[in-house]
Amino acid sequence: MSSVQIRDVRKSFGNFEVLHGVSIPIEDGEFVVLVGPSGCGKSTLLRMLAGLENITSGTISIGDRVVNNVQPKERDIAMVFQNYALYPHMTVADNMGFSLKLRGAKPEEISTGVKRAAEILALTPLLDRYPRQLSGGQRQRVAMGRAIVRDPQVFLFDEPLSNLDAKLRVAMRTEIKELHQRLKTTTVYVTHDQIEAMTMADKIVVMHDGIVEQMGTPLELYDTPANQFVAGFIGSPAMNFLKGKVKSNGSAGFEGPNGVKLPLKTAPANSEGQPAVYGVRPEHFTIADDGAEAEIVVVEPTGSETQVFAKLGGEQVVAVFRERHQFSPGDKVRLKPDPSLVHLFDETTGKRLNG
Amino acid sequence: MADIAIAPRRAKTEVREATSWDQLKHNRNWLGFWFMVPAMAFLILFLAYPLGLGIWLSFTDTKIGRVGQFIGIENYEWLWDDAIFWLSVFNTLLYTFVASAIKFGIGLYLALLLNENMPFKAMLRAAVLIPFIVPTVLSALAFWWIFDSQFSIISWSLKHLGIINQNINFLGDTTWARICVIFANIWRGVPFVAITLLAGLQTVSPSLYEAATLDGASRWQMFRHITYPLLTPIIAVVMTFSVLFTFTDFQLIWAMTRGGPVNATHLMATLSYQRAIIAGQLGEGAAIASAMIPFLLAAIMVSWFGLQRRKWQQGENND
Description:
Chain B: This is ABC transporter permease. Chain B: Residues 89-305 form the ABC transmembrane type-1 domain. Chain B: One of its GO terms (cellular component) is plasma membrane. The complex is a heterodimer. Helix content of chain A is 24%, strand content 34%. Chain A is an alpha+beta fold. In chain A, strand 4 and strand 5 form a beta hairpin. By secondary structure, chain B is mainly alpha-helical. Chain B has a single domain (78-309), classed as MetI-like (MetI-like fold), CATH 1.10.3720.10. Chain B has 15 helices and no strands. In chain B, helix 5 (83-114) packs antiparallel against helix 12 (219-247). In chain B, 29% of the residues are buried.
């Protein structure tokens, strides 16, 4: 186990810079999830950590050692690939023991290591099978087994669940998290799925266009997103954004599209009349007499909750209710955001304005 | 709508018993047979019939211009005591083994090289194919000049470099002649091996190499433990074809040496042609050609067992 320090790392392919100075501190034993849309550079960063890509500038250290010029096999890391990258001509046991074999370990040593990992992952009955004879979830576990056998300083996961069906993905998510709690090995996990990030991470790093937008615990990111990108990326259904300006009339307030009045707890200093973006999560709407009038467009009950799409000041917003309101399309309702839970962002920079 | 649905439907035509012709028309095997007929006719006419005729001729004393009599295995008995026939068998085996082994080595090396990222990759890959697309006789004629006893460019160059004093008699010396025809065959055969193996290499997922890199494999270990085992099925196919083509080679030898000097480069195919067509001894020539069959069958058997799907290739297909 080891800490990992990523300091001002840049990566260029030719003249095209894909990572513009990324710094991420990762503590010993921490489960860090790099999340962001495709092309944000998260996989590239992971591959640089693994040593599969060169580092253009900046440093990456594992433990106390800067690994910029250290060969992948010397870095003491193990990686689980998106397509698992199992060797098709080797049995499960051979796949898992391959790294030990290359290291020149004795056959007994290899079989002990493989058995131990197989027990952790319940793979013992499958050890003599070939990858083709396994289901998707089993292959996924073999790929993890291959990583565990090496007992590395750091585990790297590159979108390991994206080839699995929805149900299996949820199960494997739990399994990986449980595994981490058991082994306590420092883990860096890349995904584009914010739910995976939220459920598994000790620390989430949201990346976008080659920079780190924000890092923090899942709930920090959810409660106080640093900018509009993070606010929109984390949470499902996504946060509603309404453009308008700060307009306090006695008490703090916000004037949304078409003059819709929305409540603010406190207006940021010197913001009166400034254009801004008002953000409210779907679950922070309530039905109240002093709310803003909205017309219901679509109602989607899921059982545990109901998603309501409505027009608010001409803009479509989504609200989620745990209570079972009897709504039908065309109904007029009064939606009121919880003023203590709304977010205010700068219209041009997207930066968070309220505390 | 409801009325229409409820009204009983009347059969449009009288129901009649299906005749045996109707049944035949709908019999998939019968239909399949007729779809196969054109291909079968083609194969029988141009492959099975000549093969059968050749084997039949080898049991007769047919000469050009004379219908032969069945003479049993007399032709083979005759060949058994024919030193030139045995020399041609030796030459063919030597030619096949040496040329195929070297073609495999160079082909695999080229394939690995062309699979790397390098400038002008597409152009280099196309260039490798050139020996393959030049008509055999044309390249044989070019080699004939390159190895000419008087005008050889190799002799000329070596003389000018001061390495030798007099021309090398490439196609006139038995050892040199063998080396030369094998060289020409390798030159022609390498592209087929290289391009086919390259195709095989490209089916190997790059992430396997990345995984192996992280597992700590050196480049040699990656080749030994990943590339080579994954390539074995295609190696089996390509080498079977290469051996069959080389064993039955005729054009190159005939255009370069006609089997000479002193039969040193006579292969079974060229000897058969010489005896059957040039000398008119159809029966004897056919016997030499038929004698190739056991060798070819053996090569096919080896690949048949080599090609059996390996255990790791079985099971479901999705990756």
